[in-house]
Amino acid sequence: MSPISRTIKNTDLETIVSLAKRRGFVFQASEIYGGLGSTWDFGPLGVELKRNVKDMWWKSMIRDRGDIVGLDSAILQSPEVWMASGHVDNFSDPLVECGNCHRRFRADHVELKCPHCDAEKFSEPRQFNLLFKTFMGPVEDDAAVVYLRPETAQGIFINFDNVQTTTRKRIPFGIAQIGKSFRNEVTPGNFIFRTREFEQMEMEFFCKPGTDEEWHRYWIEFSNDWFKQFGLRGDKLKVRAHESDELPHYSKGSSDIEYEFPWGWGELETISNRTDYDLKAHMERSGRDLSFFDDAEKERFIPYVVEPAMGADRSALAFLSDAYDEEGEGKDKRTVLHFHPDIAPVAVAVLPLSRNEKLAPKAAEVYDMVRVHFNAQFDDTQSIGRRYRRQDEIGTPLCVTVDFQTIEEDNAVTIRDRDSMEQIRVPIEGLRQALDEKLNEIREACRG
Ligand code: GAP
Questions:
Q1: Which of 23, 52, 241, 387 is most buried, by the most CB atoms less than 10 A from its CB?
Q2: What would the mean pLDDT of 408-428 be, rounded to a whole number?
Q3: Is 195 in the pocket of ligand 1 (CB under 6 A)?
């Protein structure tokens, strides 16, 4: 099967936002109260999409390899964690205020004019710390201040010794975590691209000092391949090494995997060489030994860390934008999402030809059979043509149709391919295998 091409090379963001709302991928959070800035709720299809992104990442990092284990650490940690990590002192963005409308922007996000009122007068930049603060317990004083984590990574560093001793992993090995992070971003925007509450998928790979550069190259390549494996087009991805003045405070070298979003290139993932910065910082502040003893070499050292850090919401947006296409003309025109089958919110839709009592029992039987193995949806409303279009628009790779021939003649169904729109007829007893084979073909064709 040849790779899936697109009629539309670059979609505009408005089209994606409108589809996302119309079909239940993403809703404005607190919508009935007028919304809350830059917060979003993932609807029934969006939650499946993001879950698939996270599941595929977890599978690639942990289930498919033997050298990485998982963790789910607390969002609220001792404030000491963020003092040691440098976030209390250094995790800030330069902020400027417009001299006319007094709105505030990230200095590196504005050029000459105020994006709101076009004035050309700005204050001098000052540093604005991005940590969200709250209070733990009933007294709201300085002693009760805790921070919502701005990255999942620190939960991993402070558990390095717990995980290493309980799993008996030898270096090199990694610890992966998926979870919510919070940043009081000065200028959030571009839908779910930059928000104040988001999910990260991070892995800290602990290695011997001196091997870190090689591992850094390895994880950059791995990450770039990962996005292509699950369908992002290779020509819309690039690797960009950070300039020295944009490196995070903990990093010796960082590279971003960038994707060409509807508004231009934007960061999907950063792969950083964090050296022994974090383990050392926590050793110094906590007084606990976080070094590693290599029995084979009889030497003790503080591991270096290479970190691929990816955003789940941003990746979901990239998969959604990349999958989008409009094909055909006139009455044959359709909107289609060419999702990779492992990313698609629904893998198989079961559609009786019409809502007819003779078809209903067989259609229900087929649906029950299919949904055990695949993320499936049943739909018997409106005409079959409209239902195909609806499934195309949410990116369902395969539709199974139960018709009168099924019940009267051959106990077979048709499988319709989302991308080619071709249909094949298969006996119900061989349906599962046929669906597996078709999904594999689509997986291959989706590879970017
Ligand atoms: N632990 C390293 C770290 O957090 P980062 O580059 O600041 O590195 C990693 O964040 C990834 O998290 C980013 O590449 C992006 O995908 C996602 N991310 C960061 N800030 C975000 C935000 N405000 N909204 C949505 N995603 C964000």
A1: 52
A2: 97
A3: yes
Tokens 């089958």 correspond to 341
Express each pLDDT in 367-389 by its tens digit: 999 999 999 999 999 999 999 99
Q: CA gyration radius for the chain?
A: 25
267 lines ligand 1 (CB under 6 A): yes
* The token pair that represents 305 in the structure block: 């860390």
Taking all residues of the chain, what is their mean pLDDT, rounded to a whole number? 96
Amino acid at 318: A
Tally of CA atoms within 13 A in the half-sphere of 157 that contains its CB? 29
Query: What's the mean pLDDT in 105-132?
Result: 89
**CA dist list (Å): 418 to 4, 214, 402, 424:** 11, 41, 17, 12
Range 108-115 average pLDDT: 85
Q: Which helix (H) or strand (E) holds 424?
A: strand 423-427
Secondary structure letter of residue 141 according to DSSP? S
Going by pLDDT thresholds of 50, 70 and 90, the confidence category of residue 448 is confident
Q: What percent of the chain clears pLDDT 70, i.e. is strictly above it?
A: 100
Ligand 1 mutation target, pool 314, 315, 317, 319, most atoms within 8 A of CB:
314
Contact predicate 197/188, CB 8 Å: no
Residue 36, pLDDT above cutoff 70: yes
Residue (of 391, 401, 402, 386) closest to 344 by Cα position:
391
Q: How far is the CA of 365 from the centre of ligand 1 (A)?
A: 45
Torsion of CA 101, 114, 13, 447, to 10 degrees: -130
Q: Can you list the positions of beta strands (E) in 374-411? A: 376-378, 398-402
**What band does 1 get if pLDDT is binned at 50, 70 and 90?**
low
pLDDT in tens, 218-269: 999 999 999 999 999 999 999 999 999 989 889 999 999 999 999 999 999 9
List pLDDT tens digits, range 135-154: 999 999 988 999 999 999 99
Taking each helix axis from N to C terminus, what angle separates 312-323 and 44-58, rounded to the nearest 10 degrees?
Answer: 110
Question: Can you tell me the distance from the alpha carbon of 413 to that of 431, in angstroms, rounded to the nearest whole number?
Answer: 8
**Distance in Å, CA 107 to ligand 1 centroid:** 18
Whether 85 lines ligand 1, by a CB cut-off of 6 Å, is no
Asked if 89 and 195 touch (Cβ cutoff 8 Å), the reply is: no
Long-range contacts: 177-180, Cβ < 8 Å, 24+?
Answer: 177/70, 177/71, 177/72, 177/73, 177/152, 177/153, 177/201, 177/202, 177/203, 178/54, 178/57, 178/58, 178/72, 178/152, 178/202, 178/312, 179/72, 179/73, 179/75, 179/152, 179/155, 180/75
Q: Is the CB of 157 under 6 A from ligand 1?
A: no
